[in-house]
Amino acid sequence: MHALSGSPAGQYRAGARVLSLFASPLNALVVRALAEEPLRLAELRERVGGPAQTTLRGYLCDLVDLGVVARVEKRAMPYSVSRELTPEGQELLFVVDILERWLAETPQGEIKLGTEPAKAAIKALTDGWGSAILRALAAQPLSLTELDEMIADVSYPALERRLSIMRITGQIEAVPSSGNGTPYTITDWARRSIAPLSAAGRWERLHLAEEAGPVTWVEVEAAFLMALPLVELPEDAEGECVLAADTKEEDKRIAGVHIVIERGEVVSADAELKSEPPTFALGAAPAWLDAVIEGQLSGLHIRGDKKLVTSLVQGLHGALF
Asked: What is the pTM (predicted TM-score) of this model?
């Protein structure tokens, strides 16, 4: 495996920028309130719990800059100014719905978007995604020391803090070990976070194309490795194939997973791609996002056993969406 590194300071991995927006409880409350109807500032303030007016104005400015909220002036008497969701904001509601569903499935029980527990869970997710912890643990259980050796650009104390909050929020758990150190693995709930990350990533590709971070080989491998154990396949599914994305990166342009399936079970999945796989599906990142979110295969180039690829893609779609 290529060496892993955290996302550069001030940058986000694909999907993380939009999800981090909802780590701020007030943003979630504002978007949900404006989804119902346009509101004047005083009305909106009442709907979201009465925050300080200057605080609410600051959050609204950020949402306007992101293209999610628009200021609408009524010129006729009596003059008024309302805020409403833009078409981009309306599309963002799909991301909110998927994020809410993920938060409802926590190991500790349902938590509501816009609350402090939701803030902690989303922050833990975006930190684990951005630091490549989730990519590393998706392949195999690892201890803090092993993660520190594997992930560049993230300090040992920072990794330790992130592991701690990921464990507290139920995204990783310790597994038995006979060696030194405590190895951690990701939970099924953390695996299902690929749903909100994918929904957010697609929204970024559509509406923040110039600002959004690229989909790199780290995100591609992490997404497949995390989600595949959740997939249910027909009992007669057999064979091996590669699911891969063209990242257009110079050092690792084609990234994905090599999968072996026996009697309807994924018995192995790793990121070591065969040069001549008997069956493969290849597509750009947007095509894979559509495939997983919508179950559409039209944007993928498929060779070999199309039935097997279809079963895998539909299994990913069904497990996550």
From this structure: 0.92
